[in-house]
Amino acid sequence: MNLLIVEDERELAKSMAAFLHSHDYRCDVALGYFQALDKINLYAYDCIVIDIILPDGNGLDLVRRLKEKHSRSGVIIVSAKNALDDKITGLAIGADDYLTKPFHLPELAARIQAVIRRRQFDGEKQIVFHEIVIRPDERVVRVNKQIVKLTKNEYELLLYFIGNKNRVLTREAIAEHLLGNQADLLDSFDFIYTHVKNLRKKIIRAGGGDYIKTIYAIGYKFGEK
């Protein structure tokens, strides 16, 4: 899962990114409004954590820009001000949650997980696609009640496929989802082919269906056999 942290306090941003990275999130950091604006115009994020008070702008304006471009990113507003009007305004313009400083990093991680799950899977604690069952809180995947061990990228890929079932996903979109802005440095998309091949093999080996269809020269589609 790819996150963007918009926070002008460098040490706090660094601590947030390090903690979330340890929980298998990929994090970009923007230290100001315009840096954040550049990133949200270039990349797609699963969730964006936005400080309201920025040195060169207002975080609420970033939320407005996200909604104007119909972004599918979840949004959590963070502010040192425990002001009711900021909270009401943020939620009214489209933020998913609000967190007041100081906060504990495990709470932030839990809020992010809840927002992503709510947006992608309607808040379900168990994601089911035919014989495939995923429990995101435990990061456990079962096929026909048999636990299937996936690598981190294979797990993220399966969630991404199921969250976008019956949609054609380009190789570029998949690479960006798995690698964030590091996808720009790729010379080829061979690693995607490898992850897809291994994921397909593990699901079929456990008695699951072959739901991944290759769309020639474009990417993949996950859906009915």
Description:
The protein has 225 residues and is α/β, with parallel strands linked by helices. The protein folds into 2 domains: 2-121, Response regulator (Rossmann fold), CATH 3.40.50; 127-222, Arc Repressor Mutant, subunit A (Orthogonal Bundle). The protein is 43% helix and 24% strand. The chain is built from 8 helices and 14 strands. It has helices at residues 10-22, 33-42, 59-68, 84-92, 105-121, 152-163, 171-179, 190-205, and strands at 2-6, 26-30, 47-51, 53-54, 57-58, 74-79, 97-100, 127-129, 132-135, 140-143, 146-147, 168-170, 212-215, 219-222. The strands form 4 sheets. It has a 5-stranded parallel β-sheet with strand order 2-1-3-6-7, with helices on both faces. A 4-stranded antiparallel β-sheet has the order 8-9-10-11, with helices on one face. A hairpin with a 2-residue loop joins strand 8 and strand 9 (132-135). The longest helix is centred in the middle third of the chain and has 17 residues, at 105-121. The model has no long low-confidence stretch (mean pLDDT 87).
